[in-house]
Design a protein that fits this description.
Order of helices and strands of chain B: HEHEEEEEEE
Oligomer: heterodimer
Order of helices and strands of chain A: HHHHHHHHHHHHHHHHHHHHHHHHEEEE
Strand content of chain A: under 5%
Helix content of chain B: 10-25%
Radius of gyration of chain B: 18 Å
Structural class of chain B: mainly beta
Strand order of the largest sheet of chain A: 3-4
Number of strands of chain A: 4
Amino acid sequence: MTSSVELVDALRLLAATGQGVPVDTALLRRAESLLSQDDRVPQDLRGTLAAADGVELAHVAEALLAVLGEAESLGELMAGAIRSEGGIPELRAPDAGWARVSDRLAQGLERSARAVDVAEEVEQATSRVPEAPSREQIATAVRQEAGRVELAAAVMDALGARSLHVGEAVAREAGRVELADPIAQSLGAPRLPVAAAVRAEAGRVELADAVCTEIRLEEPLASGARILAAVREGSGRVEVVEAVLGSLQVPCLPVAAAVRAESGEVGLAASVMALIGPEWTSVLLDNELSPSARRLATRRLLEQPEVRLRLTDFASVGRAVREAVALHGGAAPQLWPEVAEAIGSDPEALPELDGAQVAAAVRAEIEPVDVSAAVMERIRRSAVAPVNVEPPVSANRLGWAGLVLAAVALLAIFGWPSAPEPVAEPVAASAEAEPILFAHAGEVTVDALDYAADTNVHLIQDEDGPLIIWFEEDDEGATL
Amino acid sequence: MSTHRRYSWWSSVVGRARAALVLGALALCVGSLPVDAAWAQGAPGRQVPRPKRPVVNKVEVQLQVVYATNEHTRVDPKLRDVMQSLRVLRFSGFELLSTERAMLGVGQETTLSVAGGRKLKVQLVSRTEEKATMRLRMVNARGEQRWDTTVSVHRNRSFVVGGPRYRNGKLVLPVSALY
């Protein structure tokens, strides 16, 4: 190695010696020896190494390398000397943290293309930077950059072919039926006028659902009975039925109207009156005949079996009507005593009221009750039986009269019997009552009948029932 | 009771032996008089087995006094066998108040007590192997006769008279001719 090369290496080692680092004395003496003999260094600088120590020795070594032309740059010492001599301010060294911030920002903004909220990422990246902007400022800036995200399209795309069920899902989740129609409309589903009609009439969603369910499952609009049953089940009110059926344009079953027409009392009453005369038919049943007229009517009934049959029919219809009304409306309370007291009338007296006006007033107060079906059912079930009581006709009475006259004549011959009246034998009170076996038709006859003027008599005997002689007393005095 | 007609007062003397002679004589007198066949109606009845009774020319008349009302729905267990027939009267509750009985010969009369102070006078008008004819007269508590009827009924059969007011209902009176 030449002395010049050996001198440069030694100077580089000495230039790298920092503060506090021990100086290699042998290297320093060798560097001083070589420097004193090197012709490229001016004579004034050949003793500078021996005069320096510490940091100053490193700076001197760098300056000698620069003089020899072996330094790569002027170095910080030279740069400082130049800035000091030229009046240039010292440059601020760059902060390595800002490089990391830049990297995180780049990564977060890249992900924002796929995820909406990058504010959190930015905040995490900048949390260690004292001068970083606030979270709100960053979030606002990010949202301004990201714009609005169209969620609906993404959701619908995800649902794909099942989009038709969106309406149902929404309705189920929302719990309100009102949403279903606009959704169904937006989906292009046809609206069901039946449901709207039912809702309009019934005003209850449950009712409409029941009806619509029935319609969907069964043949639409053809099964009026099923619709009617569903409506009744949902509403529990008879009055709704006809309105609903009308809105559905389902013709009401003509049965009810027919029954009403047939069960009216006009036709039956007319036939009865044609048979036994209009002057006393109804008033007989209402106990409004005068005593003499009632006796005449009763005699005609006894003499004309066919009239009794028709009158029995008439009474049966009335009884069936009353039973049906009671069945549907419940037992009627005793209204008249309170009414009479309220109007200052005698509850025991029969007021002279217009029956039609009373009936109209009652109908105005109560709700209509359809009893036709029940009435007709009971009428069909109940066979109207003839009254098998033969009348005591006048010819027979003449026979008794003749018998009496003859007996009187013979009694005049033989005298009145002197024996005491026969007395019935008592029956032991402890004896058990005999079982009752009622006589059927043909096993009992009414031979004679007489009654007080204020009494009405009804002979009742159904086909298999007992003979009943019923004495209806208008005024028996005090009720016993 | 002036408005009443009395058709069969003759029956009060027909039980006497002398009356038998009268009837025999009258048979010739009144044989030509028109008599409605219905009065003698007597179609064969059902042959229902009943307890055999000795026929001693007497008839045991049994009267049951039943209170029928719509105030309740209770039915006296003693009336269980007849309820099917009484249901036609359209009452909901039935109570057996009493049972009255008397053994009557032809022409004999007895008075049976009915609720509310009423009396029912029963007279056996006639009796055959097939049927008995009874005259029934109802008298109210004031002693006024309310009605008077004569009924022929097959032996061991019953019929019903009814209608008198009692409490808040009516009285129903099954009458039986047992022999």
